Amino acid sequence: MSLSSSLRVAAALLFICNCLVAVSIATDLVKDVDIDEWGKEHVKVSEDGASLSLSLDKDSGSGFQTKEEYLFSRFDVELKLSPGYSAGVVTTFYLSSLGTKHDEIDFEFLGNVTGEPITLHTNIYSQGEGRKEKTYNLWYDPSEEYHLYSVVWTPKRIVFMVDDKPIRVHNNHEKDLNLPYPTKQPMRVYASIWNGDDWATKGGSVKINWQYAPYVAHYRNLNITEYEQGEDHPLTQEDKDYIEMVETEHMIYNYCDAYEKELVRECDVPIY
């Protein structure tokens, strides 16, 4: 075999190997998810299974979950929130396992009065332990158009992303600090819209106004990319600069500033 032929074969094998590292799955929102019984009449699914809407009114909210569980994957969904007055409304996209010592990775969107920014609340639970909250005032109107929200979950780190740009990184500190990190429990994807007006907007002081109901959240193009055990999500300097900008200009709550040092030991360790 000539050198050029060998190189072509090697390149083809490398391409095949790279394709096997991460397998991307476009989820059918008809076939691949279960609609929650508590509000199934408030769910509408497109005929092609690519999009789905969840609604909330005075009678009930609604939600769905994937039938399959996943471990170490990237989870993408495009989401458009209910417009206008949405104080007290909580819209979610999150991962969770089951049981009292469950793992969970949360995107929660907390509604507001008309003209005030929607709040994005993020949190992580590992083996039933949470208290990893970081919260941001969104710098755009999430009801005007679809935006892409992503959770990247690898053995090394969890990355929260908005429109394909990272806004938060949480690293695995199991070995160096003996802190729990989700590594063993597969998780399902969940989404929901529900009445959280006892806490969601200004500590519960601003309530849902039912004259604006139904509140409707639109989800589309749920995509799951499964990773190999050793695969990671490297961050560029541009990524790091963007995270710093978001934290400086838009973060309104950081768990690192809220708890005793012993409970947040990882906050003294550089992220990168």
Automatic annotation (TrEMBL):
Residues the record marks as active site: 104 (nucleophile), 108 (proton donor)
Q: Which UniProt keywords apply?
A: Glycosidase, Hydrolase, Signal
Domain GH16 residue range list: 1-219
A GO molecular-function annotation: hydrolase activity, hydrolyzing O-glycosyl compounds
Question: Which InterPro entries does its entry note?
Answer: Beta-glucanase-like, Beta-glucanase/XTH, ConA-like_dom_sf, GH16_AS, XTH
Residues of this chain annotated as glycosylated in UniProt: 112
User: Which sequence ranges form a coiled-coil region, renumbered to this chain?
Assistant: none
Gene Ontology terms: biological process: cell wall biogenesis; xyloglucan metabolic process
Kindly indicate where the leader peptide sits in this chain: 1-26
Question: What is the protein named?
Answer: GH16 domain-containing protein
Taxonomy of the source species: Eukaryota, Viridiplantae, Streptophyta, Embryophyta, Tracheophyta
